[in-house]
Amino acid sequence: MATPYLLLLPAAAVYALFTAYPVFRQFEISFFNWHIFPGASNPYVGFSNYTQLFHDPIVRTAALNSFLFIVVTVPLQMVVGMFAAAVLADRLPGGALWRAAVYIPVVTSWVVVSWVFASLFASQGGVANVVLGLFTGHHESIPWTAQTWTANGVIWLLSIWKGIGWSFIIFLAALDGVPRDQMEAARVDGASERRVWSHVVIPSMRAAITFVLVLLVIGGAQVFTQIYEVSGGGPYNSTQTFMTYARWLAFSSGLFEFGYASALGSLLALVLFGFSWLEIHVLRQQEL
Fold first, then answer.
1. To 5 degrees, how large is the angle CA 237–CA 240–CA 241?
2. Concatenated DSSP letters for 149-195?
3. For the chain, what are the domain ranges?
4. Could you say which DSSP state residue 221 is in?
5. Which CATH number fits domain 59-287: 2.120.10.30, 1.10.3720.10, 3.40.50.300, 3.10.520.10?
């Protein structure tokens, strides 16, 4: 009887040590003016770190950027992933190759692909400017990653391209579970392909859609690597998100504001928990 629990013990210990404990420790540190230097005092400041968040203009910018990132990238990843799954669900010639091509970006390193996109959109010698120059007829040197909206656009494009394969593989597996007899019965009754999808396929895949949506929203709110590597949060903090700003506060500001950074991380964790619960609750109510 104890064997399953003994087998789970190593994974549970790793989770408790490297995930659960840091989260609770983060909440604790957020109530202090925390310093990492040996012998330094860590005075208790209560909720002052949290109240400061609501008066920080960079936090408002980070919230807007995180919201826009989710709104832009999550629906496109899901729609394109669903379309690719629908096209490649059948055994087409070369289907395995196309499936691999769609999924390969998922297993590539975020750092590597971020560097690649930064090079493609470099102001000098970047492929984007070269291609644009072919259409305009003169040399272009647009600083894509050094301007707020173009930098965000590069980050969104990179994230969509790399994330499509993840939703694709989930939807592809879910499509295998859709009752084929119901689909064929609907087609025999004269239902259009759009009605087959809206009345048979999508309802059968609701659990997978909920799963993908929740995880993409959580991942989108925690976006970090591509922003850090492509724009560094600049120019002038205009592309900061919650995670990049928290990292800057803790390690790059020169003030080592670990308490304030922990408050920002804790606020994000609470918002994500509440939003995920609400999202799952609403989607489950629609199933009833």
1. 160
2. HHHHHHHHHHHHHHHHHHHHHHHHHHHHTS-HHHHHHHHHTT--HHH
3. 59-287
4. H
5. 1.10.3720.10
186 CB neighbour count, 10 Å cutoff:
18
Instruction: Give, in degrees to the nearest 5, the angle at Cα 72 between 286 and 235.
Output: 145
Tokens 């950027």 correspond to what residue?
65
Backbone angles phi, psi at 32, to 5 degrees: -130, 155
Is residue 245 within 8 A of residue 233, CB to CB? The reply is yes
Backbone phi, psi, residue 285, to 5°: -65, -30
Burial of 49 from C-beta contacts in 10 A (0-12 / 13-18 / 19+): buried
Q: Read off the tokens for 193.
A: 């392909």
Instruction: Tell me what pLDDT residue 286 has.
Output: 60
pLDDT digits (tens, 9 = 90+) for 202-260: 888 888 888 898 889 989 988 999 999 998 888 888 999 999 999 998 887 767 888 99
Q: What is the DSSP letter of 145?
A: G
H helix intervals, 89-126: 95-107, 110-120
Question: Model confidence at 160, in pLDDT bands (50, 70, 90)?
Answer: very high
